[in-house]
Amino acid sequence: MAKILLVEDDRHLASDVVDWLQFEKHIVDHVDDGNEADQRLKFYQYELLILDWELPAVSGVEICRRYRAAGGNAPVLILTGKAEIKDKEQGLDSGADDYLTKPFHLKELSARIRALLRRPAAMTGTVLKVRNLSLDTNTKVLSKDGKEIQLSPKEYALLDFLMRHPDEVFSQEDLLERVWSSESDASIFSVYTAVKTLRKKISDPDEKSVLATVHGLGYRLESK
Fold this sequence. Notes:
By secondary structure, this protein is of the alpha/beta class.
């Protein structure tokens, strides 16, 4: 699971991509304008950017160049109908990590995304483990001491994120930004509720929960 910014002005293609990636459990924010993309990148953190090359106002290549110049380090995938080697060089020289030529199959897009998300150390592997919890990111199955635990989609997204960042403290505002889509009507109470229900599922009544509250700061998934 990753929080992805999709910048694509072809509404039909964007709708197909958003539906596909959400089916694969990703959180997707979609905008169709380069200026709006720049604004999103100033205020929100993403784990992957998918940028159409030819956009109104600001091109995807220019968005990528600005993002890298500002210190952004999330993987960037450029989408375009351009197929010439010189165009690919220009896209990659702007700071993009990969390049996908239109038209493309959604399964190929998924494969490219998986490859890009494997690059950071925190995203390697298909099974995340913290203490006696094991989360298979391919099958979307959580096990505790070998016993499967059913999670709602939002509980899964929250645990997936926390297991990729063990022992780090995140405020409710942090989690709202990182785990929930910025277009959703979720609130701080949504975070509180998701943490409460997730904690109940992964903890035993007579033990200290692996999902700890750090008073005044937020929540932490403790690895020890």
